[in-house]
Design a protein that fits this description.
Helix content: 25-40%
Distance between the termini: 49 Å
Oligomer: single chain
CATH architecture: 3-Layer(aba) Sandwich
Order of helices and strands: HHHEHEHEEHEEEHEE
CATH class: Alpha Beta
Strand content: 25-35%
Largest sheet: 7 strands, mixed
Shape: globular
Structural class: alpha/beta
Number of helices: 7
Length: 209
């Protein structure tokens, strides 16, 4: 069996091909638009798994917000710095980050936990809740599926995937102290040879004030 690639290996190889493949994900843009409508002026936003910086960081900084993005793939960080110079991008594994509690007005994590074991995802939900300011928002997207270490092929790369079905995912965010305020599910086909339709769930959760 082919060894599953790490997230850094996959996304270093994909680079802007990933951005191209997902550029027509209208549900993602709708989730970002709703977030923009809810943010205070000049909000501090943390983007976990920032990728190429587009569309998330680009739309946020265009609206006047202060964006810091992290990604595990050096190539993605390089591309994001070039494409969205008004934001800050750093190389880092989200599991190794440390911030003071109540640092961020909002945190976004679009499909960036699919290669994290479930236990790590649950730990991250608690940490994200702590990092948010009271009233702050988490926008989280993933492929909703009851999978715990399943080997799949993603855009030509062998990966090991971990996720929760939509219901249990909502329960885990609630257990972390967050209130779901928006939920949207969509079926999307990436624009990439051999890519098939994949279900997406977009959840916006608020930390109680």
């Amino acid at each position: 069996m082919t060894r599953p690639e790490t997230a850094a290996e996959v996304f270093d190889a994909l680079g802007t091909d990933y951005e191209h493949a997902f550029r027509t994900a209208t549900a993602q843009r709708a989730a970002i638009t709703d977030l923009l409508d809810a943010l205070p002026p000049e909000a501090a936003v943390l983007d976990l798994g920032a990728g190429t910086g587009r569309p998330v960081a680009e739309l946020l900084v265009a609206a006047g917000h202060d964006v810091t993005g992290y990604d595990v793939a050096p190539k993605m960080v390089e591309i994001a710095r070039r494409q969205v110079p008004a934001a800050r991008f750093e190389l880092g594994d989200m599991r190794e980050l440390s911030f003071e509690d109540t640092t961020w007005d909002a945190i976004t994590a679009f499909f960036s936990m699919l290669q994290l074991p479930r236990a790590d995802q649950e730990t991250m939900f608690g940490r994200l809740a702590a990092w948010l300011k009271p009233g702050g928002l988490l926008v989280f997207a993933t492929v909703p599926a009851d999978v715990d270490g399943v080997d799949i092929v993603f855009m030509g790369h062998p990966v090991r995937a971990y996720s929760f079905a939509a219901g249990p995912l909502k329960e885990r965010l609630a257990a972390a102290g967050l209130e779901i305020v928006r939920a949207d599910e969509a079926l999307f086909v990436p624009d990439h040879p051999g890519a098939g339709p994949e279900p997406h769930v977009y959840l916006t959760a608020r930390k109680p004030a």
